[in-house]
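User: Hi! I'm working on a homework problem where we have to compare a predicted structure to a textbook description. Could you give me the structure for the chain below?
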Amino acid sequence: MKFLIIQPKLEPSILQLERELQAHPSVDAVIFPEGYLNENVEQACAAAKRWNTILIGGYRRLNDRPKDRAIIINRSGDIVLDRVKYSRTAFQSVEGTTMGHILCDELVVQGVNSEDTDGIDVLVHPIGVGMFSEAQFEEWIHEARQIAVTYQTIIIGTSHADGSFRGSDVTLPIAYCFDAEGKAVFVSKNDVRTRLFDTLTMTVSFV
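Assistant: Happy to help. Predicted structure tokens:
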């Protein structure tokens, strides 16, 4: 499966996502950060159907607490996974690939919160804003690697290109991928270029 990993700026619309879909029609799925869709879920479903592409990431219900939710939309534009942040980790088989989410700081707060963890193929880690320090960056990368090893699964994370944590004047955009043995396919900070990851060849390239 070919995953496009994007680091858009947070925006009120989904124009950046739509541009990526238009530019890369041959990818199977696009991974985007926590909250990126905001409340534009209907628009995202239409985009998934139009470009025949799976969408994996996060959106917001701004009047709810917590407001952030994980979402997977299939190629037909149907929502096949919708989970509120800090609830139990859910998994969904999409085209024979079993996928799940860890939303942002769930990585360090609860990890994989599920008793049904057999046969996970891909964990997606949509992150909200960038890291607020080098120490946080190292901590999160370490935790992600440990999860890959523990559950013998690929894990892919990506944050927005902008934003800061609780008013911090430091923001380090982050993206990464570890294979099922915990080996780094790539680890990135302060580099918000779009990447294409191919699970068949286990290679990543800039597009």
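For your comparison, note the following. The CA atoms of residues 46 and 53 lie 10 Å apart. Helices lie at 15-23, 41-51, 106-109, 134-151. Good luck with the assignment!
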